[in-house]
């Protein structure tokens, strides 16, 4: 398909200015991959997130951070020094023609530069600005420092994750990896921005959004808050399964290939389920006693729960590779899954059927790399990665000269004065 | 309500159940959309089974606490969509709505006669968001998920845990919460696109698939550098790097030490804090907060490479100090000195002791007819012109059937009564709640 044939994404025509580090870059990527023209504005020398590894071929360089690559697709990049008045004036000119500004500075920073929303909105009343910060713009913690680990602790994630004492004696609560506090914040910020944009389609008005990552994390623990509010319960951490007010049967079982399978069995055991389980075990030649008529009595099932789960299901899974259990079980309607390492997804046929993996060109390297794609297929206005992450200041000329009308001489002067 | 909201005038037909779909539509409701939840008591999942009914209340379709929090800001229409009249009503509702959203497995709406093509016949610019486990296309589209399965299969569970231990995974359905986020994001994005272009569309969101992009750097590390996740020292628990293993970034930001959870006084189950120093200067500030003990001023801890090399000793020493303080006092001391530290917080901590969440009004009460006056969770963002807020408790099942069928769609009271008699609005063999009988008077 040539570029001309590609349908525009749902956010085509939208101009976003992103002044964001690890806290907001994912939100900016989502906007960009969905079709917005996202201009990433970095300080001279580049955003600090360019220094986060791993790096291409393990050679550290600000244009080789894979983390930066991933979280900054579909953006153009400029450098701009907001501490210098020339830099601020250029920013104001960009803001005058922007639809959305996404920023993650400490509260009050933009105001200290005379770039608060009120000032920017005065020249562009349609402007939507989202400040996505660790704790929001107000409150006793607003100036606290944070990190992904800190958010996972205070947000409640860690209180729910960890181990059965038998599996890892003395283990601490565990914060799942991958930087998910930033994802949680980014998802909610995206929702807030889209709501403001929808509102603007009706009234033409822009507005300011004060979004808090701590609150986003505190909202992302399923029923934990309800367990407390309605029942006063404190929840236990359990290996590979849900938190619970009292210990529950395990759901994660080791497979023949040393991996694991998550099999949700407890709480679902009834005569019908036992029959289906018997058929699943039969299909793989696994001996069992589930055809015993006693299992048509729920009381007998209840009395044998441990036998069914800890003997039969555990032994069945131990006899096969995790992927084989997963597909055999799902094919028979069991909601079970293999616990995969991330890179196994690169071989997942279903994802390939959905066109999930995207080749992204890195022309300066003469190479292309495969990237994860979209969470959802937009059938009328496709999600796509329009370009790899920008190199430092890659679009300075394009944006400041071609679009804002600066001369090359002015651009050089600004670069010399470290305004860029 | 006189306050303006972002989605005023938007109507959502919500077939969703269990958690991910209802969590999505809850936010559309908070933003001002009229969300009409279509449900049926015989195959309801979300209200029952309930593990969050308050002690002393009967467990029934209207007493799940978690359902209440997950379904605020909605109206309930009880409707047997598999009856001729039920299907007609669903279509008439779609015809006057903006968004249809559901999280059934991949072929359910089609089988009901409500495929995207059928929806378009009554509402050509409808935005249809399907939130299935694996999506509507792809060879495994008929596979099913709950949160833990989506987390396992997408690679998210594996990246949580200690080295050489089984995956700790996620202690809740993170992908129900996050699937809900993507459902709401798709609905809003589709709505914006419709408002700009006049075109609706079907957006095929998939819970398992949505987990995969959350592992981007790990996936690129494999695709680009050939580095696998099944390696010594990974995942590194709460640390950025596990001591004694090859030094490599583990996808949680810059490599740093200290970077861990530490016990605090009085040492109960949730008495932990986390401390992270991302620079030598931050470490020196922590040293000062700890009172500059001689161990901490030793040169071997002055550099990041030293702190990584002697991380076991470092963590043990820090914990000996942290155990002398409560987690909130430790946080206050560290943060006021510019050190990254926060308490580990249980749900009770968040609701009762987190002064920031209190200041931001995260948990405000709303009156529910069966559950009483209960705090529900508020939006983590404040829109200056059109703030999101919870304005309705979760609906009792079928609470708004008359309002919608008679008031919105224009059926007569007689037709409503006939629908109750023939099993369109409530199963004929099932006892009715008193408010349903009231509705027919």
Q: Unreliable runs of chain B, pLDDT <50, ≥5 residues?
A: none
Q: Given the C-alpha coordinates, what overall shape of chain A results?
A: elongated
Mean pLDDT of chain A: 96
CATH class of the largest domain in chain B: Alpha Beta
Instruction: Please state how the strands of the largest beta sheet of chain B are arranged side by side.
Output: 3-2-1-4-5-6
Please tell me the CATH architecture of the largest domain in chain B by its name. Answer: 3-Layer(aba) Sandwich
What does the model show?
The complex is a heterodimer of chains A (420) and B (441). Chain A is 36% helix and 15% strand. Chain A contains 17 helices and 15 strands. A six-stranded parallel sheet of chain A has the order 3-2-1-4-5-7. A three-stranded mixed sheet of chain A has the order 6-8-9. In chain A, helix 1 crosses helix 8 (180-203). Chain A is elongated. The two termini of chain A are 37 Å apart. Chain B has helices spanning 20-30, 65-70, 84-95, 108-111, 116-122, 147-153, 174-197, 207-211, 216-225, 280-289, 304-309, 311-322, 327-336, 347-352, 355-359, 401-408, 413-421, 434-439, and strands spanning 11-14, 34-39, 74-78, 99-102, 127-132, 201-206, 259-263, 272-276, 340-343, 363-368, 372-377, 381-383. Helix content of chain B is 36%, strand content 14%. In chain B, strand 1, helix 1 (20-30) and strand 2 form a beta-alpha-beta unit. By secondary structure, chain B is an alpha/beta fold. In chain B, helix 6 packs across helix 7. Chain B folds into two domains: 11-212 and 360-439, 3-Layer(aba) Sandwich (Rossmann fold), CATH 3.40.50; 239-263 and 272-343, 2-Layer Sandwich (formyl-coa transferase, domain 3). Chain B has a six-stranded parallel sheet with strand order 3-2-1-4-5-6, with helices on both faces. In chain B, strands 7-8-9 form a three-stranded antiparallel sheet. The radius of gyration of chain B is 26 Å and the shape is elongated. The chains are: A alpha/beta (420), B alpha/beta (441). At the A-B interface, helix 2, helix 6, helix 7, strand 6 and helix 8 of A face helix 2, helix 6, helix 7, strand 6 and helix 8 of B.
């Amino acid at each position: 398909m040539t570029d001309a044939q590609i349908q525009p994404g749902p956010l085509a025509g939208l101009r976003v200015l992103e002044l964001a580090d690890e806290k907001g870059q994912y939100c900016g990527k989502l906007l960009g991959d969905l079709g917005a023209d996202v201009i990433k504005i970095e300080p001279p020398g580049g955003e600090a997130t360019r220094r986060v590894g791993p790096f291409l071929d393990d050679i550290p360089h600000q244009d080789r951070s894979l983390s930066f690559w991933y979280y900054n697709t579909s953006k153009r990049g400029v450098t701009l020094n907001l501490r210098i008045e020339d830099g601020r004036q250029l920013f104001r000119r960009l803001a005058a023609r922007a639809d959305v500004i996404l920023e993650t500075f400490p509260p009050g920073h933009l105001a200290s530069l005379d770039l608060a929303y009120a000032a920017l909105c005065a020249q562009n009343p349609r402007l939507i600005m989202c400040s996505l910060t660790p704790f929001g713009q107000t409150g006793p913690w607003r100036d606290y420092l944070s990190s992904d680990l800190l958010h996972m602790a205070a947000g409640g994630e860690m209180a729910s994750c960890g181990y059965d004492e038998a599996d890892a004696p003395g283990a601490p609560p565990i914060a799942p990896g991958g930087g998910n506090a930033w994802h949680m914040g980014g998802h909610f910020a995206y929702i807030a921005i889209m709501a403001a944009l929808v509102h603007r389609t009706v009234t033409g008005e822009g507005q300011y959004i004060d979004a808090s990552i701590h609150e986003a994390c505190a909202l992302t623990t399923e029923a934990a808050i309800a367990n407390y509010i309605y029942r006063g319960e404190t929840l236990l951490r359990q290996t590979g399964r849900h938190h619970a007010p009292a210990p529950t049967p395990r759901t994660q079982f080791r497979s023949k290939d040393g991996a694991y399978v998550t099999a949700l069995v407890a709480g679902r055991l009834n005569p019908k389920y036992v029959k289906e389980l018997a058929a699943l075990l039969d299909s793989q030649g696994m001996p069992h006693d589930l055809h015993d008529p006693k299992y048509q009595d729920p009381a007998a099932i209840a009395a044998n729960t441990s036998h069914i789960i800890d003997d039969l299901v555990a032994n069945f899974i131990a006899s096969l590779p995790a992927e084989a259990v997963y597909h055999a079980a799902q094919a028979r309607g069991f909601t079970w899954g293999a616990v995969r390492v991330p890179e196994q997804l690169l071989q997942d046929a279903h994802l390939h059927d959905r066109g999930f993996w995207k080749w992204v060109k890195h022309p300066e390297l003469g190479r292309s790399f495969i990237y994860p794609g979209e969470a959802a297929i937009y059938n009328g206005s496709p999600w796509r990665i329009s370009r790899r992450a920008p190199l430092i200041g890659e679009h300075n000329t394009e944006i400041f000269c071609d679009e804002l009308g600066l001369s090359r001489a002015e651009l050089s002067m600004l670069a010399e004065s470290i305004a860029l | 309500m006189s306050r303006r909201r972002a989605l005023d005038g938007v109507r959502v037909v919500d077939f969703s159940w269990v958690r991910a779909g209802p969590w999505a539509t809850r936010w559309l409701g908070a933003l001002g959309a009229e969300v009409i939840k279509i449900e049926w008591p015989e195959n309801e999942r979300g209200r029952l089974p309930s593990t969050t009914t308050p002690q002393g209340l009967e467990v029934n379709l209207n007493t799940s606490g978690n359902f209440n929090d997950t379904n605020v800001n909605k109206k309930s229409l009880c409707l047997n969509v598999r009856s001729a009249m039920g299907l007609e009503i669903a279509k008439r509702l779609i015809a006057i709505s903006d968004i249809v959203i559901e999280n059934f497995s991949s072929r359910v709406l089609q089988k009901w006669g409500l495929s995207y093509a059928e929806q378009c016949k009554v509402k050509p610019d409808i935005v249809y968001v399907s939130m299935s486990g694996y999506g509507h296309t792809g060879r495994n589209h008929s596979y099913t998920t709950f949160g833990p399965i989506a987390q396992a299969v997408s690679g998210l569970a594996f990246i949580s845990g200690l080295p050489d231990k089984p995956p700790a995974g996620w202690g809740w359905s993170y992908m129900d919460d996050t699937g809900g986020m993507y459902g709401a994001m798709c609905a809003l994005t589709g709505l914006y696109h419709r408002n700009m272009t006049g075109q609706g569309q079907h957006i095929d969101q998939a819970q398992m698939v949505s987990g995969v992009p959350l592992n981007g750097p790990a996936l690129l590390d494999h695709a680009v550098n050939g580095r696998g996740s099944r390696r010594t020292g990974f995942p590194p628990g709460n640390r950025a790097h596990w001591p004694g293993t090859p030094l490599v970034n583990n996808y949680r930001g810059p490599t740093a030490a200290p970077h861990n959870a530490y016990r605090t006084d009085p040492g109960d189950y949730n008495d932990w804090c986390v401390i992270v120093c991302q620079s030598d200067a931050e470490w020196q500030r922590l040293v000062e907060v700890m009172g500059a003990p001689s161990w901490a001023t030793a040169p071997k801890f002055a550099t990041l490479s030293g702190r990584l090399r002697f991380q076991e000793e470092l963590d043990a020493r820090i914990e000996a100090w942290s155990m002398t303080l409560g987690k909130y006092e430790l946080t206050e001391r560290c943060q006021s000195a510019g050190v990254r530290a926060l308490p580990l917080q249980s749900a009770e901590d968040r609701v009762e002791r987190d002064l920031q969440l209190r200041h931001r009004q995260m948990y405000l009460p709303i009156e529910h007819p069966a559950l009483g006056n209960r705090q529900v969770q508020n939006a983590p963002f404040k829109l200056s012109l059109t703030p999101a807020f919870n304005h309705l408790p979760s609906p009792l099942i079928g609470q708004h059937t008359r309002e919608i069928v008679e008031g919105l769609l224009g059926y007569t009271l007689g037709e409503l009564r006939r629908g109750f008699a023939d099993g369109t609005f409530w199963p004929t063999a099932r006892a009715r709640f008193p408010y349903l009988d009231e509705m027919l008077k």
